[in-house]
Design goal:
27% of the residues lie in helices and 10% in strands. By secondary structure, the protein is of the alpha+beta class.
Length: 405
């Protein structure tokens, strides 16, 4: 699948610093791609179980054949003695990963029944030695919080030479980072309000030259404080409010480059899910239900697809898993446009590393399209749009990012 391909691509990166820090981190990424829990979190249970099963001598020690060799003492001059027989940290981790996987199969009889089959009985004790050595030899790689996807970073072409405001496609290199798997909900934002770190989500929309009719009609779509929309993305918040929330959560708004890479990866796909055209099963955009809402409220709406996707306004986050990005991000297009940290600016053809956009400007970039999206180009990950940071729109929300150190 896409996540497995992304993990392998990072493992084969040309630059060593772009690869996984450890074999364990690579293995965890592979396991996550096939919906298995991280192996690193299982090291301690494996060690405990393996030690309990391991044969011991009369003194309660592991047999010498499976014990880790003792370090050689310093020589008479006080210099450290050679560590002959000691595995390098890299080899320890590699062996720990392999044997850790084998330990999961051993109790199931996949490698023998433990009753004399060659190689079956000694396995747990060997796992105990190697995995415990791996845990102490190499520090754990930094992990993202549970609600965030680990984005490996790397090289990709940002933009599109055939797009409207996405030219030119140019090479960007990103450091690893974390990104919220889902948009920030009205309930999560309310918790920030209760803590005193955020102002209440507005119940009225506001933008330059808004008409009284627009204010009345579209304010009804604001989710803050609406009980049955607590699981919907918070909307009608301006750029400053989004920034404050992310700071409260120990995060930040993503850069425009980080947002685009998280939405499409490096394989040049047209949409987060691939090249198939959008439909009502992959995202919340404007369908039959949206047009009907417009007729009822005296607003002309144009549909992106003929089907009814079930939501005239925003949808509860995660309602369209078929539209997930290569890194598992949900609703990355559709539902609400998402604020980024960047000021609006032009692209340059030269390669860039961790770009942050212009230092100043008038409009901030939003990405991803919304529930009222009527054109496929609006929900392409390369599509750029911007608005004044003080705008409070029913179609604007956000998700947060976090730097991996």
């Amino acid at each position: 699948n896409d996540r497995l391909e992304a993990a392998c691509e990072r493992a084969l990166a040309v630059k060593p610093e772009a690869r996984f820090a450890t074999a364990g981190e690579f293995w965890d990424s592979v396991r996550a791609a096939v919906d298995l829990p991280p192996l690193t979190r299982r090291l301690e249970p494996i060690v405990l179980r393996a030690t309990a099963l391991a044969p011991t001598d009369s003194a309660g020690q592991l047999p010498a054949t499976v014990r880790a060799p003792a370090p050689v003492s310093d020589d008479s001059a006080g210099r450290p003695g050679p560590r002959k027989g000691r595995m390098s940290p890299q080899l320890v981790v590699a062996a720990g990963v392999i044997l850790g996987a084998l330990s999961a199969a051993w109790p199931l009889g996949l490698l023998g029944n433990g009753s004399g089959a060659p190689g079956a009985a000694p396995l747990p004790s060997l796992v105990a030695v190697v995995t415990s050595s791996a845990a102490s030899a190499v520090p754990a790689a930094p992990a993202c919080p549970p609600d965030m996807a680990s984005i490996p970073g790397g090289k990709f072409f940002m933009g599109d030479d055939d797009g409207e405001d996405e030219k030119p496609a140019h090479q960007v290199i990103l450091s690893p980072y974390c990104m919220d798997e889902r948009e920030v909900t009205a309930a999560s934002y309310a918790a920030c309000v209760e803590s005193g770190s955020c102002e209440a989500a507005p119940s009225l929309v506001a933008w330059k030259d808004i008409t009284p009719k627009e204010r009345k009609i579209f304010s009804a779509l604001c989710n803050g404080g609406v009980a049955d929309r607590a699981g919907h993305p918070v909307n009608c918040v301006d750029w400053a409010a989004a920034t404050r929330y992310c700071a409260y959560a120990g995060k930040r708004l993503p850069t425009e480059a980080e947002w685009e890479f998280a939405a499409r990866g490096s394989d040049g796909r047209k949409y987060p899910w691939g090249d198939e055209e959008p439909d009502g099963t992959r995202l919340n955009a404007c369908g039959k239900e949206c047009v009907s809402w417009g007729v009822k409220n005296g607003v002309t709406m144009r549909s992106l697809y003929a089907a009814d996707d079930g939501f005239a306004g925003t949808a509860p986050i995660g309602s369209f898993p078929k539209g997930a990005s290569p890194f598992g991000l949900l609703d990355i297009v559709g539902n609400v446009w998402e604020w980024t940290s960047d000021w609006e600016g032009v692209y340059h053809a030269s390669p860039e590393t961790d770009p942050e956009g212009p230092k100043s400007g008038i409009r901030r970039v939003v990405r991803g399209g919304a529930f009222n999206g009527a054109f496929a180009s609006w929900i392409r990950p390369t599509r750029r749009y911007s608005d004044r940071p003080e705008t409070r729109s029913h179609a604007y929300g956000f998700r947060c990012a976090k730097t991996r150190k």
